[in-house]
């Protein structure tokens, strides 16, 4: 039997009604509140980052290859859709062609300039599927170009269009051409730079308008297996592609959004460091008080032959017990709150300011485990500070202490 643990358990049983009881409750509450806030903060931060990134990826993949051009127009010179990178570079999940075409949408009452982004049946529209508010994705034809388009909620509201309506697209070229298009679905990303400009359609229509064969596209989008490897894969793609092509990372194309997300993460980390500091400081204070209240006991234990290490272990076990209680309640509260928000979405947001209509939650159990381990380790290390004062206590003075 471990005598230090036995004495620690007995102290816990007889401390009811003492000043230490109130202090230990405060320590448990501070740890519970700290871990709960950290879990909720990281879950919301990761959810927010993932939500924004998914919305950005719905309009562009991780890497984009296009013809080198000093003109910053939406339309560019065509390139071959077969650039031969899939087999030679690890980390590439999919290569998909696209094309853009500027157009003017005219209804009976309104006129609006847009950019039609053409994609093929093999284009991954799963991210766009999540943004759909009404209708469905484009239906492709085997023999002819599809006349279906996806409009944003912003464009549809301005033009007073709804799913199933037909409208005229006037394409800006020489000579100008017009096509009657059908609204197949309405999406909403919450990102103004996309919702106010882009319309999703069939790349076959753009090839037809530009007199391109099926082997050409306006550009190539590269989807990666791991977004975190974007810099390494981009270097390899750049080394292998032709000199007349240019490569652009999505983090550069939308630098402001990604810089904002990085800044948000830094602020949250600073906030969480302060929370951990407060929790560990409270535990140090609690152990100090427990030692002072047990000065007589320490003196008696030393008088009967107990070592300083054994006495320190008594308070370390006591601190560990309090920390584990705090972690248990903190995880219960934090995970419970996240589960309620994840399934019931009871906290709404203003889409105009936050790009989404509810507080997002992302489940990262590896991060949750890391938060618990870090809190436990730092708290236990902090407990060693007051426990070290046991060696300075003299048995004679301790027994007489009142």
Notes on the structure:
This protein is α+β, with helices and mostly antiparallel strands. The protein has two domains: 3-55 and 258-400, no CATH class; 69-243, no CATH class. Helix content is 52%, strand content 19%. It has 14 helices and twelve strands. Strands 1, 3, 4, 5, 6, 7, 8, 9, 11 and 12 form a ten-stranded mixed beta sheet that branches. Helix 2 (19-57) packs across helix 11 (308-344), helix 9 (255-293) packs antiparallel against helix 11 and helix 11 packs antiparallel against helix 13. The model has no long low-confidence stretch (mean pLDDT 83). This is ABC transporter permease. It is a multi-pass membrane protein. Keywords: Cell membrane, Membrane, Transmembrane, Transmembrane helix.
Layout of strands and helices, then pairs:
Layout: H1 3-14, H2 19-57, E1 63-67, E2 79-80, E3 92-106, E4 111-119, H3 126-131, E5 132-135, E6 148-152, H4 153-159, E7 166-171, E8 177-187, H5 192-195, E9 198-202, H6 203-210, E10 216-217, E11 219-224, H7 230-240, E12 245-249, H8 250-253, H9 255-293, H10 295-303, H11 308-344, H12 351-354, H13 365-387, H14 395-400
Parallel strand pairs: 4-9, 6-8
Antiparallel strand pairs: 1-11, 1-12, 2-10, 3-4, 3-7, 3-11, 5-8, 7-8
Helix pairs in contact: 1-11, 2-9, 2-11, 2-13, 9-11, 9-13, 11-13
């Amino acid at each position: 039997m471990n005598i230090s643990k036995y004495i620690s358990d007995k102290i816990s049983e007889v401390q009811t009604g003492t000043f230490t009881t109130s202090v230990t409750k405060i320590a448990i509450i501070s740890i519970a509140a700290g871990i709960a806030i950290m879990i909720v903060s990281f879950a919301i931060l990761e959810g927010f980052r993932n939500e924004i990134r998914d919305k950005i990826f719905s309009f562009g993949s991780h890497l984009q290859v296009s013809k080198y051009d000093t003109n910053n127009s939406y339309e560019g010179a065509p390139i071959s859709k077969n650039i031969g990178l899939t087999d030679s570079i690890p980390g590439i999940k999919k290569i998909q062609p696209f094309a853009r075409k500027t157009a003017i949408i005219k209804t009976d009452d309104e006129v609006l300039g847009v950019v039609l982004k053409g994609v093929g049946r093999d284009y991954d529209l799963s991210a766009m599927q999540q943004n759909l508010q009404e209708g469905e994705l484009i239906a492709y034809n085997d023999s002819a170009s599809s006349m279906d388009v996806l409009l944003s909620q912003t464009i549809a509201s301005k033009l007073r269009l709804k799913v199933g309506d037909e409208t005229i697209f006037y394409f800006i070229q020489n000579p100008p051409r017009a096509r009657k298009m059908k609204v197949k679905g309405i999406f909403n990303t919450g990102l103004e730079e996309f919702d106010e400009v882009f319309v999703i359609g069939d790349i076959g229509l753009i090839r037809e308008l530009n007199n391109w064969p099926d082997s050409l596209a306006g550009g190539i989008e590269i989807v990666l297996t791991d977004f975190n490897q974007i810099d390494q894969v981009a270097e390899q793609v750049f080394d292998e592609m032709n000199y007349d092509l240019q490569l652009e990372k999505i983090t550069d194309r939308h630098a402001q959004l990604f810089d904002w997300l990085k800044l948000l993460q830094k602020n949250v980390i600073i906030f969480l460091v302060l929370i951990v500091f407060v929790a560990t400081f409270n535990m140090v204070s609690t152990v100090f008080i427990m030692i002072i209240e047990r000065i007589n006991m320490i003196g008696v234990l030393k008088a009967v032959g107990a070592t300083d290490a054994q006495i320190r272990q008594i308070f370390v076990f006591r601190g560990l017990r309090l920390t584990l209680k705090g972690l248990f309640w903190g995880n219960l509260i934090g995970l419970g709150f996240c589960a309620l928000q994840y399934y019931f979405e009871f906290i709404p947001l203003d889409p105009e300011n936050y790009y989404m209509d509810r507080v997002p939650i992302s489940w990262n159990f590896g991060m949750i485990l890391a938060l618990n381990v870090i809190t436990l380790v730092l708290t236990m290390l902090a407990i060693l500070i007051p426990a070290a004062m046991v060696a300075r206590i003299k048995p004679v003075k301790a027994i007489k202490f009142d």
